[in-house]
From TrEMBL:
<feature type="domain" description="DUF7282">
    <location>
        <begin position="454"/>
        <end position="533"/>
    </location>
</feature>
<feature type="region of interest" description="Disordered">
    <location>
        <begin position="48"/>
        <end position="87"/>
    </location>
</feature>
<feature type="compositionally biased region" description="Low complexity">
    <location>
        <begin position="532"/>
        <end position="548"/>
    </location>
</feature>
<dbReference type="Pfam" id="PF23951">
    <property type="entry name" value="DUF7282"/>
</dbReference>
<protein>
    <submittedName>
        <fullName>BGTF surface domain-containing protein</fullName>
    </submittedName>
</protein>
<dbReference type="InterPro" id="IPR055706">
    <property type="entry name" value="Slg1/2_DUF7282"/>
</dbReference>
<feature type="region of interest" description="Disordered">
    <location>
        <begin position="528"/>
        <end position="548"/>
    </location>
</feature>
Amino acid sequence: MRRTHILATVVATILVVAAVPVPADALTTAPGSNDAVAFDVDETQSVSSANQNALRSGDVAEHGSAGSETQSRNVADASGSFPGGNVTVTRGDRVTFTVSHSGPANVTIGGPDYGYHLRIHLGGSGTDEVSIDTYATTSADPDTYVTGGDATLVGPSGGLDEPLEPGDYLVRVDVAGVERDIATLTVEPRGGMSAQTFVAPGEFDPNSVNAGNDGNANVGPLTGVASARGTVAKGDYAVVKIEESGLETALNASDLSGGEAANGVKLTFTQTAPGPNRDPTTYLAHGTTDGAKEANVTVYPAFGSDHVYVVWDTSNVSLSRQSERNRYEARLTLTEGNSLVDEETVVAATPVRLVRQTVSLSPETDHVHLPWENDTYVVSGRTNRAPNTTLEVRIRSPDPNAFLQIRPMTVDGDGRFRASFDLGDVSRGANATMWVRDHYLETMQEVAIVAPDPSVTIDDQDPGDDPELTVARAEVPEGGFVRLVDEGGTAVGRSNYLEPGRHENVSASLSMPLYDSQTIRAELVADRTATRRTTPGTTLRTSETAPR
């Protein structure tokens, strides 16, 4: 009897152990191994004790068979998976993945063999999106950096000393206590960072960029007008384009002062050649610590493309008379307050050279505009302002008939601009002033819109048997012809129609040969219709010759 009793006790004990489902998150499997390692001893023991109490009360003996069948069916119907499969993230960035589950589930990341063990409970059923900020894994409270589920940090209890290190971490999902799917979370090392200087027009409106709330600003309005150039005219925007790595959550767009709120991320513009016995002038984004002046900057993270854009308004930056002292370097620094580095480290830098604005303007023809010239008066200029800057070119005259013409022109990539004015309806005899708005002193030009006097000159000559005389010069303001008249006032010849302008050596055909020495008068006749008329037109000027 005693032996039989002992055997029954052993059998009962075995049944208790077999009836207890071991939670999947209580086991961890080392990479490349099929061996399960128990780590959550307290949780397993509490479950076993509960089942032993149930055996003592006789519940298992009475209902165990039906309960086991129901539990088996539930387990068989349960499912869980990672629809996206394996995931990869740069150290310091945020990783997001989805979990599908038919019922309450536990997602486990890492384990004792990984130096990091996180469990995330998902209630109900469906598909959940889980997000983990790898930079904030130094926190002892995982709910501060995990969204999408109820997180428990199994170890280390006080959080990591540094952000989650590069490596491959096993990710498991269990439903109804059974492992349903596994995946790999790969944390990659941070890559190298770099910076490049651009320039944007001073008229650019920073509010035109939709900053968004997800760290992915719509920077199209900025990149559409910014040009890669290290020289920035005061008043334009210096744009620093940073190629970042691992700063997705550490970078605070509203604070790059390097302090606690900035997570140790600091942006400065520091003078590179301050001169002897001088401390360099430094402009600090969002702060004035350590004697720095505050830089008026706007920051646009575009983490979707791993970029950060910093726009520096240079309007209030003091310029030195010595150009070398206007050279700065934009530096992105991680201070000791950032857990990605052990000591203050400059991770990206690019030069920025500030200069005074310069604009020049000149006509493409002459400062005198004649009536026979093209009605379009073209001027061109150069500037060191940012490409895509709009400059307003003006020409103005108060007398005799006042007029003002304004032409907004865009600076091209070479710093050139060009404007055209229509002077066709402008009264002749006026003096006009031409300039670029906001740059009057350096661009002001005087333009004479003249109405020249008509004139004609014919020299003594011997035509012989030639039925033509040559008119030496004719200045025709509005078009016409030269008429030849003898001493009696009879027309004896004429030239072809002459366009408005200055003409030399104009041939005038004779209606009859001239054999005797006589005086011939050349008359300049206005004829806007350009016809070969024989009736007298308006005689503008005359000149006489005596054929030899």
